[in-house]
Amino acid sequence: MLSLVVFLPVLAAIVLAVMPRVTDAAARWSWLVVTLLDLALVVGLWVSYRDPGAGGLAFEEQLPWIPNVGSTYHLGLDGLSLPLVALTSLIFVVCAVFALRDTDRPRSQAALFLFLQTASLGVFAAQDLILFFVFFDLSIVGMYFVIAGWGHGNAARSALKFFLYTFLGSLALLLGFIGLYLGSEAKTFDMVELAQNPPFGDQPVVGGLVLAAVFIGLAIKTPTFPFHTWLPPAHTDAPAIGSVVLASILLKMGTYGFVRIAMPMLPDAWRDWAWLIVVIGAISVLYGALVALAQTDFKRMIAYTSVNHMGYVVLAVGAAGVVSNSSAQAREVAITGAVVQMVSHGLITGALFLLAGVLYDRKGSYDIGSYGGLAAPAPRYAAFFVVAAFASLGLPGFSGFIAEFQIFAGSIGPVPLTALALPGILITAAMFLRALQRMLMGETRGLSDGFHDLDRREILAIAPLLLLAVIIGIVPRFLLDVIEPASSVVIELVSR
């Protein structure tokens, strides 16, 4: 069942690629139907999911693959990966809906995004480091072609910068994976085995070097300060749905790797370097917020908020590694908040990038100062923008509040230093309020004249993301019940 969820999109992509007589309309609707079917399968997995317990996996599949190096085709889900698999399936449905009227090579676009969906799902379902790495690299390749093929502005240069930075990170990650393999007694790439029997327990220096390689590879993909410089141009020049997948899904591969790989497989090194990771997270929170505040380009502003929001995740996972003089319960809350933040950021920032895409589709500009009084000609757009902005700044009643409250509640006790990142919330609020005032309020002027409001297709794409952000913000229990047992296991593993 899990293999079907992962590989159904790429099978559909192959069919679209080899059938030259598929019409543009058929390609677009086929893309949507396949993503909806995949989402339905994931909903079925969620409904039937039961916590597998410490070290266990639900829907597990394992077959021989490369036996001479201890690598297997191993898939499975737990409370860390299931929410991200569900988020991935939803995001690709939203992208398919938003692209229903695209006329630029829709068959190729549909096939590429279906390929990218399989790569993304594979990262979160993989339970073997080599399999994880294969899907991880395929996601980089897919996004490169999305930016270069359907982007605007200086798309070729931005795509190349994205590829070189993130591919360099994947090489560092591969080096770390080889180190984990060589350090393991069983000489295996199996992620469950490595988490249960972590290497380098008596070799702290070597363990620290392996963690450095893994951390750098994941930090570039996250991205966190100072590895973030590829992100703003990639987002600015990518098509709207490319930015959505990049922000909502691909960035989560880095933060997911922290809780899935770095923390449980290198617990001693993680504890030794936890304070540095906390500092990096705090800097990312404040830096991302301040630079976003200075932007005049709406899309670049949202891009820098991703550095800010992913900084909260890094802050939480770092604090969870500070074991001395801290309770396990507090650190579990921090990890739970980090995973909720991954989901929340995917929903809210995905909606914001779609709203940015509407601006570019209508007027060809992201310049905040070129719009004014937009609420009058486009009240639906204004309403969605207001909701998304307040959700992103962490207002109670939205998923962002649930995530950030848990992150700080679980982090300030073990590491009081994390309180220094709290002004990031205030700066983000000022940034969004200023953008709302400049773009929506006052007399209609500039590019707002003649601005067509959101159509049905755009509403159907954006509304589910914001609705789910509200549902999680009001009744988060259905999500927390899945995540909390897995967070407890992570804390047990990193505390050994």
Task: Describe the 3D structure.
This protein has 496 residues and is mainly alpha-helical. Helix content is 71%, strand content 4%. It has 19 helices and four strands. It has a two-stranded antiparallel ribbon with strand order 1-2. Strands 3-4 form a two-stranded antiparallel sheet. A hairpin with a 4-residue loop joins strand 1 (58-66) and strand 2 (71-77). Helix 2 (24-48) packs parallel to helix 4 (106-125), helix 10 packs antiparallel against helix 14 and helix 12 (274-293) runs antiparallel to helix 13 (298-319). The longest helix has 36 residues, at 328-363. It is globular, with a radius of gyration of 21 Å. The two termini are 34 Å apart. 57% of the residues are buried.
In short:
71% of the residues lie in helices and 4% in strands.
What is the share of helical residues? over 70%
Cα-atom radius of gyration: 21 Å
**Number of E-state strands:** 4
Distance between the termini: 34 Å
Q: Tell me, rounded to a whole number, the average pLDDT.
A: 90
Which sequence of strands runs across the widest sheet? 1-2
Shape: globular
Main beta-sheet annotation: 2 strands, antiparallel
The assigned structural class equals mainly alpha
How would you spell out the order of helices and strands? Answer: HHEEHHHHHHHHHHHHEHHHEHH
Name the poorly predicted regions.
none
Number of helices: 19
Strand content: under 5%
